[in-house]
Structures are given as C-alpha cells and as structure tokens.
Amino acid sequence: xxxxxxxxxxxxxxxxxxxxxxxxxxxxxxxxxxxxxxxxxxxxxxxxxxxxxxxxxxxxxxxxxxxxxxxxxxxxxxxxxxxxxxxxxxxxxxxxxxxxxxxxxxxxxxxxxxxxxxxxxxxxxxxxxxxxxxxxxxxxxxxxxxxxxxxxxxxxxxxxxxxxxxxxxxxxxxxxxxxxxxxxxxxxxxxxxxxxxxxxxxxxxxxxxxxxxxxxxxxxxxxxxxxxxxxxxxxxxxxxxxxxxxxxxxxxxxxxxxxxxxxxxxxxxxxxxxxxxxxxxxxxxxxxxxxxxxxxxxxxxxxxxxxxxxxxxxxxxxxxxxxxxxxxxxxxxxxxxxxxxxxxxxxxxxxxxxxxxxxxxxxxxxxxxxxxxxxxxxxxxxxxxxxxxxxxxxxxxxxxxxxxxxxxxxxxxxxxxxxxxxxxxxxxxxxxxxxxxxxxxxxxxxxxxxxxxxxxxxxxxxxxxxxxxxxxxxxxxxxxxxxxxxxxxxxxxxxxxxxx
Length: 500
Description:
The protein has 500 residues and is an alpha+beta fold. The protein folds into two domains: 3-24 and 68-242 and 312-353, Pnp Oxidase, Chain A; 368-499. Helices cover 41% and strands 15% of the residues. The chain is built from 14 helices and ten strands. Strands 1, 2, 3, 4, 5, 6, 7, 8, 9 and 10 form a ten-stranded antiparallel beta sheet that branches. The chain is elongated. The two termini are 14 Å apart. 22% of the residues are buried.
C-alpha cells in the first residue's frame, strides 16, 4: 500500500498534515496588525493591471471611438507569460495533494495575497440550487482539504451538506459525529462539494471536487485552541446564515429618505435655504447589527470566568476528500494547460484536458500503448530516412540499379542509375516528413518529452543497425550490443522515475 493509499483509511485518527494554519491572534502592542515591513512587501503588480482597471471602468457601452481604444488598450497584450509550458512530467506522479502543496508553497505567492483563500460550493437537495462562499483553507492532510466554519444552520451550508434540523428554537444543530453511524441518514444532505483556488500572481488555478466529511471533535479542538478569544466568542455569538433583519421596499425607501436628510443636515450651514423637517431623526434605522453585538456581550458574560472557551457543538472543521483534482496554468493565446487527477477506485490517474467549449466535452489523452507505438514508428521512419539518404550517394545504389535492369531485361545505363537515386532521394524526403509528423504526435499524446524522445531514439538506434546488417551487410560488434543494453536500461530507469 502506498503512502497515499494509507492516508485514505476511512478511520485514520490523525492523517499526516501537510499544511496547518493557526487561527486569528489578538492584536497587541507587539503585534503590528496587518502591517507588512517594507522589506517583505510583495513585488509591484504588473503594469498591465492598471490599464485593465481603466479598461473595465470605461467600456460599459463602447461606441465607434471607444471601441478602437479598447482594441488598442495595453491590457489586451497580457498573454499569460509568467510560466513555462506545464507538462505531466512536472506534476507529482500519484498524489495531487502533494502537487497542491508544491504550488501552494510557491515563493511567488506572498502571504499578503492570502493564497489560502478559496471558494467552497455546495448544492441543496432536492432543488439542486448551488451556493458558494469564500473560505480559508486551514489544513491540508493526507486525506484532503480542511476548512472550519459554523455548520449548524439549516438555512446555510450546514443544512445543505448535513441536512440537519435545528436542535430546537433558535439553537443551531450540532455537527454530526463521523463515528456515529446512527446519524448517517441516506438523503439527509448532499455531501458533494467543490473548492476552487485562484492565484492570479502565478496564473494558476486548482479545482477540487469530492465529498465533505466532518472532522472528529478532538481534531477540531486542535485548531479551535489557536483562535484568539474574541474569535471564539464571535463563533458562539454568530449563528451563521440566520436572518437578523429584513425589510420591505417601503422601509428601505424610508431609510433612503433619512440618509438624504442626514446629508442635508450636515451641509445645512453651507447650503442656503436648506430646509430640514423638525420631526426627522437623522440616525439610520436598525439593521440587526445591534442584536449581533448584544449576543456578543451575552457570550462575554457567559464565559467571563472561563479560561478556555469550549468548542461550540455546531462549529468545527470539515474535510473535502477529493474525487478529482484539476490543475490549471495559463498559456499564451489562452491555450492553457489543464491536468486532472481522477480516482478510479484505487488510485488517482492523470490526463490532460483540452480547453473547454460549450459544444464539446473535455477529452482524455490516448492510452499509453498508443503513444509508444507512435514513438516507435517515428524512430523506424527515422532509420528509413537514413537508409534512403545513404542509398542516394552510396555505391550500393549502382549495383541496385543494375539488378533492376537485369530483372526487367534492360541494359544498365547511367540514366537508370540516376533515376534510382532520384527515387531514393524522394523516399528520403517522404520518410523525413512522416518521421517528424509521428514524433510531434507522440509528444502531444505522451506523458513526457523525455519518455517520447528516448523511445524514439531507441527505435531509431535498433532499426538503423538492423537495416545496415540486412541491406549493406554491415556487422556490429560488442560495443553495439553494449549500447543496446544501455539504451534498454535507460528506458526502464526513465519509466520508473516518471511513475514515481
């Protein structure tokens, strides 16, 4: 069993963590908040971004004049030039979790850009309505991606995923215990979800699709203890996705009127003749914020003498166990690279995806046997190319022309010899064209350039020697056999390295 497979144990108590991000810390005298020292500031944004902002702000409804400005705007020159081509040989051979870890630790992703920010999408059953929200990745272990939140609300993602009803009244329901099989009710929720990471700095994106599973309480406790006290109080006070306030259009119109009056009062001294009705209260209407702050005060009083605030039963972590993981990297002319790992029941497999369109689905690369055959054929035609090139100038061509003349009862002549040499030259050019066409096709279908090149060279090496022995009666010595053995060993070693 591989390291990855052992990490997928259904009852693994503590999966190996690749990423663990502590919770919020309290800002104090020695904690400079979110300020970043000048020496640690990320590099300035590319110049095309400022042009892109102008492009977005000035092109709502372009006319004949602005249309030409749009077409010549420098923002259109951005063609995804940050990265070199992405090939399968650059990806981890078997584990997309480790490949994600490599991209996540890219030094071009400064901490200030919050690379842990991702979008979690869930869907409600039976309606199929999808909702998405930004969350923070807090852990990455050998089983999947972990995020923390309030999951007790039946109106929000908790109800979509776990199908849990509230415990009673206004109290959020608890997160299901993964070890309690009695809580696993078929059809009670939709645990299928998706995470999307977008890193514009490195022109990369990662899409994860799979099923959510709740963390055990002791696992969530580890992260809960890293959060500052105010965040813990807030988790108890905020019953996520519950409606605190709602308003009908007349109330919103009243709010707008009060805001207008407040502006008039603020400028009454400078606007001659401004009239403010005496019965108008300039303060804004209540929007539910006061209720939330009141809950915070209640929780502060409740836990006033408690040193360690307990973990709420409705709050904790969930792990997205992947069924497929797609790695996307930008390329020039928007011919982007997209590789997807997909689980076939035992281990993940990889394939390159074409740029998606509305008309046709994504396709997989040809099977391994296909590119091997193409690469071998390319090497064989390379050997034939060399053979006909040699026949174009070699003395064997003269004997070959005489044999053809004798076969058809003709007299040997220089014209016939020249004709045979011309035919060999044409075959030389044809084999060269076929060789390059097959080699290019093998590079497109193959798992890596190295594998295709070595397979092609091995075929060329062996076929050239065999053709030399058959047609030109050339002999090969011990060094040739040694070279053939080394070539075969090299193919095996490269294959083992690529599969690791």
